[in-house]
């Protein structure tokens, strides 16, 4: 049984000792309700991501847990600098969470940015540009920076 993406397995059989008396052809007929053992429920966290990107496209994934992050088609630029090295600018990403926005002075001026993290392994990947205060930087608003040391090329790269 699957409830909200969580696998539930319930075993409602009576204990082994009770089975012998219930199943034996020589046992006296039982009057009244059958004794029930406490339900044993196993909840396992499935290894699923919020979103899967199409298998036929080149994509980028989290280097730490392999969660899909972005399609190559959403790559805008490879010439960005993250806080820990080179980074790519993407139009859209999946399986990431956003922190609160804060103002930072970056190489290209003052921006309001929110750190982004992988929803699966919680690793900080880069940031999202919420607002650019200089008119020449407005194209970055709503875009995402992912640092190269936190992503890998996945599926369809030659």
From TrEMBL:
First and last residue of the signal peptide: 1-18
Single GO MF annotation: metal ion binding
Listed InterPro entries: Yippee, Yippee/Mis18/Cereblon, Yippee_fam
Residue ranges of domain Yippee in the record: 58-155
Pfam families in the record: Yippee-Mis18 (PF03226)
Keyword Zinc: yes
Superkingdom of the organism of origin: Eukaryota
Keyword Signal included in the entry's annotation: yes
Keywords: Metal-binding, Signal, Zinc
Membership in a protein family: Belongs to the yippee family.
PANTHER family linked to this entry: PROTEIN YIPPEE-LIKE CG15309-RELATED
Protein name stated in the entry: Protein yippee-like
Organism: Heterocephalus glaber
């Amino acid at each position: 049984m699957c409830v909200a993406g969580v696998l539930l397995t319930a075993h409602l059989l009576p204990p082994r000792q009770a089975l012998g008396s219930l199943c034996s052809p020589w046992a006296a007929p039982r009057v009244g309700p059958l004794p029930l053992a406490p339900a044993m429920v196993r909840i396992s966290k499935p290894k699923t991501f919020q979103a899967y990107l199409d298998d036929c496209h080149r994509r980028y994934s989290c280097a730490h847990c392999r969660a899909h992050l972005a399609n190559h088609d959403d790559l805008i630029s490879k010439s960005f600098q993250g806080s820990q090295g080179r980074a790519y600018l993407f139009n859209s990403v999946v399986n990431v969470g956003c922190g609160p926005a804060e103002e930072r002075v970056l190489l290209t001026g003052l921006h309001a940015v929110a750190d982004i993290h992988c929803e699966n392994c919680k690793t900080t990947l880069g940031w999202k540009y919420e607002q650019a205060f200089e008119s020449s930087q407005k194209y970055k608003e709503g875009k995402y920076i992912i640092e190269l040391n936190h992503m890998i090329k996945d599926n369809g790269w030659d």
